[in-house]
Amino acid sequence: MNTSDNNSSSLPSWIDPHNPGPWGIFVQQIDRVTPYLGSLSRLVDTLKRPKRTLIVDVPVELDNGTIAHFEGYRVQHSLALGPGKGGVRFHPDVCLSEVMALSGWMSIKSAAVNLPFGGAKGGVKIDVRQHSLKEIERVTRRYTSEIGLIIGPDKDIPAPDVNTNPQIMAWMMDTYSMNIGSTATGVVTGKPIALGGSLGRAEATGRGVFVTATEAAKDCNINIAGAKVAVQGFGNVGGTAARLFHEAGAQVVAVYDHTGVIYREQGLDIPALTQHVKTTGGVAGFSAADSMNPDEFWALPVEFLIPAALEGQITERNAGTVRAKIVIEGANGPTTPQADDIMRDNGVFIVPDVIANAGGVTVSYFEWVQDFSSFFWSEEEINQRLEVIMRQAYRATSEVARQHDISLRTAAFVVACTRMLQAHELRGLYP
After folding, report:
1. Which of these is catalytic: 85, 109, 121, 325?
2. Strands across the sheet with 228-232, in order?
3. Pairing label, strands 326-328, 304-307
4. For site-directed labelling of 349, which of 13, 246, 355, 410 has its Cα 20 to 30 A away?
5. How many CB atoms lie within 10 A of CB 267?
6. What is the rounded distance in angstroms from the CA atom of residue 4 to the CA atom of residue 22?
7. Is 325 a catalytic residue?
8. How far apart are CA 173 and CA 165, in angstroms?
9. Could you please report the per-residue DSSP string of 12-37?
10. Which H/E stretch holds residue 256?
């Protein structure tokens, strides 16, 4: 494939081109796809401007009686194909640029796998480790009330993300329901099963990573059995992907999380590591493995490298050291555009986040549908439907990549942007 996609850029004036940040990276990715959009390119600026951006103050009373203020966000990037869809993260580094970019990637992701959703994202700037569970509940409920005017089952449906979970989704659903005077289970996804959650949701993103990896392996003539795998992140995404690779006969040789990096050349015992992480909170100290320097992790000669933590992990600084044959992006935006170019020039095959980690939003779609109908599917049905959609999305993207001799990432954006802009064109401008 051609490794020199169009590099032109038209960043907003407030973005530093030398340090564009997440939103700047998203805009650069849109610029790269514009030459392949034909007559729809006249509408492309629509994708460089979020439809709606909400910044809210989240004041809460702490356990000690003092009042604390947290900054919250909800950004709706595009609603052309359906209601907004995207997670809510609680993290001290949450900022507007990040939430804008994540909402844009959600638009691309939903359209790339042909779901009837637009893209949205939310976040609260908070370090959850510094607060009690009751304080987190109060933050969640106040944040939900503040963004309540723009969310809803047919407007914008939040979901779990970094440092949020089914319990937080339950509080969001309850708060929204109390405010409108009726139970609205479909206002969020990723809920507990008892409140209308879907079976298979917790493992959906990691399962989708594994499914797309099997498709990429076919394109690259690699057997999963016996393949070496390195995984960054060992939560729902990285942990599930590692387990599925392990069960398929692959050797997961390295895992990197917030506590450190562990390595075993013959492959790690993933079930034992999973238990260790449940007990200790991280991979560090796992007795059946050696520790490793983080810089060495990226340079491991493996078949599959899976960044499944936060964005911006593979940059110009370390991209040249990557020796993996295939990178499967389990996280959102783990690779900068410059790093993307470096790796592709070095022959690394990259399955982009907007395809690779779309399993989560796909099963969120299943949950939303089940909530509307009050009819729920078995986990086996969920996994089968997920696999069909993920394989179809990968193959459609791969075909566009071959057709235009472009990368899978650019091809995914071509597919998604075409669908979104066709919807914009058909709907027209109002008034």
Report:
1. 121
2. 290-291, 260-263, 251-257, 228-232, 304-307, 326-328, 349-351
3. parallel
4. 246
5. 18
6. 21
7. no
8. 12
9. -TTSBTTB-HHHHHHHHHHHHHGGGS
10. strand 251-257
